[in-house]
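Today's session is about reading a structure prediction critically. Students often jump straight to the picture, but the first step is always the sequence itself: look for stretches that repeat, for charged clusters, for runs of hydrophobic residues. Only then move on to the predicted structure, which in these notes is written as discrete structure tokens rather than atom positions. Here is the chain we will use throughout the hour.
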Amino acid sequence: MKKLLIVGLATAILCSGPAIAQSASGGAVVGGAAGGMAGAAAGAVIFGPLGAAIGGFTGAVIGADAGVDDKTIEYVRVHPTDPVVIDTEPTVGYVVPDTITIQPIESDPAHGYFYTKDRVWIVDMSNRQVIYSPGVVVAAK
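Below is the predicted structure for this chain, in token form.
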């Protein structure tokens, strides 16, 4: 019975996955491999190994909709910058003030990034609007 309940809940989460992603005009999205990892971690905490597999799949699907390439995520991960101080918590749609330097991404000129409050935020360079955050990002050694 417990397995049936877990499978039912996992299926419900999987089916509601696209509803988690929202447009850049008002909500968070998770991207690519980072989304898969975040989904897997959350699924594992809630549902164990089965949840990890389903959460990882759902996160990866949602990430594909974000439009942020996995190479971009990897670049910001291995090129951390000094964090900036912002009075508010950025979210998707936040317009980055001109006083904050947005770091360019070599392989992706359409996007830039900045770190604040232990997170990296990816920005659309055409309008300085936050489009995505893969969450807490630790630089590779």
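Discussion point for the tutorial: The CA atoms of residues 101 and 124 lie 13 Å apart.
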